[in-house]
Amino acid sequence: MESYAVEPHTGRPDAGQPSTGRPSTAQPDAGQPSTGQPDAGQPSTAQPDAGQPSTGQPSTGQPAARPDRPRRPEAARPGGQEPLLTVRGLVKHFPITEGLLRRQVAAVRAVDGIDFTVDAGETLGVVGESGCGKTTTGRLVLRLEEPTAGSIEFEGRDISHLSRGAMRPLRRDLQMIFQDPFSSLNPRHTVGTIVGAPFRLQGMKPPGGVKHAVQELLELCGLSPEHYNRYPHEFSGGQRQRIGVARALALRPKMIVADEPVSALDVSIQAQVVNLLDDLQQELGLTYLIIAHDLSVIRHVSDRVAVMYLGKIVEIGSRESVYAGPMHPYTVALMSAVPTPEPDPSRRRERILLTGDVPSPIDPPPACRFHTRCWKAQRICREVEPPLRELAPGHRVACHFPENLGGS
Ligand SMILES: Nc1ncnc2c1ncn2[C@@H]1O[C@H](COP(=O)(O)OP(=O)(O)O)[C@@H](O)[C@H]1O
Ligand code: SF4
Ligand SMILES: [Mg+2]
Fold it and tell me: How many CB atoms lie within 10 A of CB 256?
């Protein structure tokens, strides 16, 4: 099982910081290890950019962490308003073929019937072990993959099977932030070319010109307008991810899918990029689908959390509800592995070690897919698939014998 030990968001005392008109976390990534490039004229990796708002954060290379921002309460959600994104019964099977005729012999059931919604302005965090279908879910939502079955509605419009051409105008509204800021930026292109590419691809002329718009985006993301003519290799990992974020924001999208946006970064930098995403959301009213295997990251950024296991959503609910009282045994096990600063020993969770590997998504276990690893499994779990039932307001769980019923 992967480690969920990173805790990048504790105790940063900058809530209520005076607004600078820019996201308050837009500082460069202090203490980022060198990229190994000669650093003459390198955009600073350890010094604040000129004109950068100070956060009073010492440049120690420690996580620039802060407490979880209070998320939107249920009541603040737009009443009766359609979700921005609605996913129903979504399935993606990758065929496995054999022989010259490429006869299909099996399929990887990467995503196997999931339902969720994302409201405008909120963040849905998707969490789960490697291979459970998170990336495929994100790619389906962006229509980078063709769904095998099910539907995806964006702003009430069914986009499940739109052609590439028909998706093109929608690319303005739906953008992606990639996991790896090292491979996702073309090393031969300047920052100006990279961040300005969406304008050119969409044939858009922003007021004031592309260069001006790109420089504004760089500033918004905590970089300097002078970085316009530099190349990706001149930047640290955190700064490169900021370039990726600036590119995703160029066309002012409504929704961003971020697939493991910080997992390739040094731990000391992760919180800064997470905080940047948070601040950009507040400033620009963005809607996020954020995918991560790290429960600490998901906890910090999400309004609601979906836990995936072998192509299924096994639990979904508000961050508070899921983290305070996880009900699916899989979620309970994942959370038990996260060290939490809990002073009361009676409330400390016992660590549950999941035994065995994640089964293959080619031939997942019948009924409850978690039964091969679940310490509560009984006969019914092997025979009857548990439906995703609402067991607390807005909190749905697929388990015959849920934990923490009636609150934590
Ligand atoms: N293009 C593909 N062809 C075949 N199998 C794939 C493809 N993409 C993903 N998979 C498989 O689908 C499953 C889910 O993958 P993925 O969505 O990347 O999971 P996660 O992001 O949670 O690690 C994995 O078993 C993976 O190997
Ligand atoms: S349905 Fe049964 S096997 Fe599945 S998670 Fe619940 S208790 Fe465990
Ligand atoms: Mg992935």
Answer: 25
pLDDT, position 77: 53
Q: Same domain for 247 and 258?
A: no
Among the bound ligands, name the one nearest to the CA of residue 92: 1
Same domain, yes or no: 379 and 262:
yes
Distance of CA 125 from the midpoint of ligand 3 (Å)? 13
Q: Which residues line ligand 2 (CB under 6 A)?
A: 328-329, 368, 370-371, 374, 376-377, 381, 386, 399-401
Q: The domain containing residue 295 runs over which residues?
A: 82-173+253-266+279-397
Domain total of the chain? 2
Dihedral sign for Cα atoms in the order 249, 238, 23, 293: positive
Ligand 1 pocket, CB under 6 A: 94, 108, 110, 128, 130-136, 361
Ranking 92-106, 215-229, 284-298, 328-342 by mean pLDDT, the lowest is: 328-342
Tell how far the Cα of 361 is from the centroid of ligand 1, in angstroms.
Answer: 9
* Cα distances (Å, whole numbers) of residue 389 to 99, 127, 187, 316, 398: 43, 19, 48, 10, 6
Distance CA 11, CA 364 (A): 41
The answer to whether position 42 is within a domain reads no
CB 69 within 8 A of CB 299: no
The pTM assigned to this predicted structure is 0.83
pLDDT tens-digit series, residues 215-267: 999 999 999 999 999 999 999 999 999 999 999 999 999 999 999 999 989 88
Inform me whether the pLDDT recorded for 45 exceeds 60. no
Write the pLDDT tens digit of every residue in 175-226. 999 888 788 899 999 999 999 999 999 999 999 999 999 999 999 999 999 9
**Cα-to-centroid distance, 239 and ligand 1 (Å):** 28
- Compute the distance from residue 259 Cα to the ligand 2 centre, in Å: 28
